[in-house]
Amino acid sequence: MRKQIRPYGTWTSPLSPKVLAGSLRLNDVQWDSESDTLVWLEGRGAQGVLVVQQGNDAPRDLTSDLSVRARVGYGGGDFTVSHGYVYFAGPNGRLYKQAISGGSAKPITPAFGAAASPRVSPDGRWLTYAHTYERTDGLALVDTSGEMWPAKMAFGTDFVMQPAWHPRGKYLAYVAWNHPQMPWDGTELRIFSMDYDSNGTPGIISNQTIAGDTKTAIFQPEFSPDGRYLAYIGDATGWGQVNIYDLETKTHTALTSAEAEHGAPAWGQGMRTFGWSFDSHCLYFLRNERGVSSLWRYDMQKREESRLPGLEDYTFFSQIAVSPRHNAIALIAGSSRIPSRIISYVPDTMPIPQQLAPDIPSIQVIVDEPDDRLKIHRRSSAESLLPTQLAEAKPITWTGHDGETVHGLYYAPTNDSFEGEGLPPLIVSVHGGPTGQVTTSYSGAAQFFASRGFAVLEVNYRGSTGYGKAYMNKLLASWGIYDVEDSASGAAHLAKEGLADPTKFVILGGSAGGFTVLQSLIDKQKFYKAGVCLYGVSNQFLLAMETHKFEERYLDSMLGPLPQASDLYRERSPYFHANKIIDPIIVFQGEDDEVVPRNQSDSIVASLRARNVPHEYHVYAGEGHGWRKPETIEDYYTNVVKFLQQYVVFS
User: Fold this and answer.
1) Three-state DSSP class for 576?
2) How far apart are CA 501 and CA 485, in angstroms?
3) What is the pLDDT of residue 356?
4) The sheet that has 60-61: what strands, in order across it?
5) Residue 5 counted as domain residue
6) Cα(122)–Cα(615) distance, rounded to whole angstroms?
7) Predicted local distance difference test score (pLDDT) of residue 352
8) Counting Cβ atoms within 10 Å, is residue 389 exposed (0-12), middle (13-18) or buried (19+)?
9) DSSP three-state, residue 285
10) Is there a single domain that holds both residue 453 and residue 529?
11) How many domains does the chain have?
């Protein structure tokens, strides 16, 4: 079929705002400890819903009236599954217990503060979890029946995350850190030695730090099922590598050495990038290379790693969960052309579980058919478009303003019904954080714009994760420099390559990315045709004073400690230079945002309004730091595309 000629940015797309608003968020997936049951968490608008699938039965909702969502920091660590029960964070900061087989949920902790990362002891009697209340964070312990008042376990540091039980209950590992460190700067891996009284109540004998410091970040401790090793991710070499600690010899060994990331910045609780096989023979782990994920296996007996086949269609994985009964692996998977899915995968050889063949533990089951190894349990969208109708994210590099290499992902305008003439407008998309990374996961936003005839550049400016710690640390005391310069040099690079119209650059970002939008419009007047700012930081002083506890000392590293760095805070606060914003801009803000409060956007808009700068301002009631309601998402995309057509496409 011959394509119609139509100006870039005006193409009709099947990816309507309503379609994007109707997509699910797939947040986590886990196995039950004693069955082939999968449980995953779906975000449906503002509601978090647990879904269970037992064997080959159809999935069914486990929770209905209670929204599942942990609220420690940015969230995450919403639930765990053990011994036929799911334990989850629900309303009023409480943890709830519910049988997978059915029945009502029962609260097992009191209604104060917030809880996350629940983990059940091997005998099923106890549950430890991260708790925060009135700016005090720590690990707490409660019985799984909810009859006792919670007891304190690990308090005294500013933050804790990722508790993990030893399979025989002898130890409890967790990660702790203090201000001004962020969890990707420096954390400590700590181990409790546990003892039990005559009633089986656990107590702490000792607490020791075995890895990490203020300059070394530790991520996701996990004991091997045989109880010999504690695995974790550490970045002492400059890259997040998989390590094991031998509990018998008290020695550490690095299992990976590739210049790639095997962990992730711990923006939330409960994040996982590796898992032990049920027999402790293997570690399955995710590897991130230039934003592209792959699944690997480390053989503990052969002491070698190998990439697992059969998953080549996927370029993004998260929340790996290895079955505690067999070697099936569940993940959230996708690619730039495949919206997120819950999948399970069985490697090419699978040891028979010991309980099924106690006398022949070495026998392997050979799985010949790929269809037997890979199963899709849930899709986040209807997937009504063919992959060829969607833009592919291509990792690219370019030379920054100072001669160093910068990374990003490029999406070409893609639509099977239209083509344009000349060069397309370019949307330069800046991720939040600023310590973050855009990957080759499915981006509904990128596809929305690319299918309408915009080119899209997602910038992994210096300061982003995924390219080694030295690359990430480039942003120290330099926020507002590298992010701004790398975004502009990336746009100029694509224009030089003939992939974008240099007169139609747009910069778009939210949160820290929104700050980069504002700072770019101030520092580079007329370079961008327009800006799109979502809940952007405009006043660094107010951010330091008003943001939530998790990030209140973040600026110590990004800009410098106060009051010594006051001049730099003023220089990098768009609020004090808002009179320099002269290009059209559309601003979006959540009314209930506690991370970047509304006053940050209000002050910028007041300056725009007073000076008659072309702008729009949209405030969404009931929304916080990001959009959850379908009606908000639909309204956002509708207004953005109208704004860009008015001020960029037809300008």
Assistant:
1) helix
2) 19
3) 34
4) 25-31, 37-44, 47-54, 60-61
5) no
6) 57
7) 36
8) middle
9) strand
10) yes
11) 2
Task: Count the neighbouring beta carbons within 10 Å of the beta carbon of residue 107.
Answer: 15
Do 302 and 439 have their domain in common? no
Q: For tokens 């052309």, what's the residue?
A: 337
Which pLDDT band, with edges at 50, 70 and 90, does 199 fall under? confident
CATH of the domain at 487: 3.40.50.1820
Q: Which two tokens stand for residue 65?
A: 């009236």
CB 141 within 8 Å of CB 126: yes
Query: What are the backbone dihedrals phi and psi of residue 16, each rounded to the nearest 5 degrees, phi first?
Result: -75, 160
Quote the percentage of the chain above a pLDDT of 70: 96
Tell me whether residue 179 is in a domain: no
The DSSP call for residue 61 is E
| pTM attached to this predicted model | 0.92
Which of 330, 362, 384 delimits the end of a domain? 384
Helices (H), 313-392: 370-373
Which residue range(s) make up the domain with 566?
A: 393-649
How far is it, in rounded angstroms, from Cα 426 to Cα 530?
A: 11
- Condensed to tens digits (0 to 9), the pLDDT of residues 74-125 reads 889 999 999 999 999 999 999 999 999 988 999 999 999 999 999 999 999 9
H or E element, residue 341:
strand 338-345
pLDDT at 331 over 70: yes
Pairing of strands 455-460, 426-430: parallel
Residues 438 and 338 in one domain: no
* 537: pLDDT strictly greater than 80: yes
- Does 553 share its domain with 642? yes
Q: Which of 331, 351, 384 is a domain's end point?
A: 384
Predicted confidence (pLDDT) at residue 157 exceeds the cutoff of 80: yes
Q: Which of 86, 87, 139 is nearest to 113 (CA)?
A: 139
Q: How confident is the model at residue 46 (pLDDT cuts 50, 70, 90)?
A: confident
Q: Is residue 51 part of a domain?
A: no
Same domain? For 484 and 613 the reply is yes
- Omega of the bond prior to 425 within 30 degrees of 0, cis? no
Task: Please state, in angstroms and rounded to a whole number, the distance separating the CA atoms of residues 508 and 177.
Answer: 33
In a domain, 542, yes or no: yes
d(CA 445, CA 35): 38
Specify the pLDDT at position 41. Answer: 97
Are 163 and 130 in contact by the 8 Å Cβ rule? The answer is: yes
Helix (H) or strand (E) holding 534: strand 530-534
Whether residue 500 sits in one domain with residue 549 = yes
**Residues 428, 313 within the same domain:** no
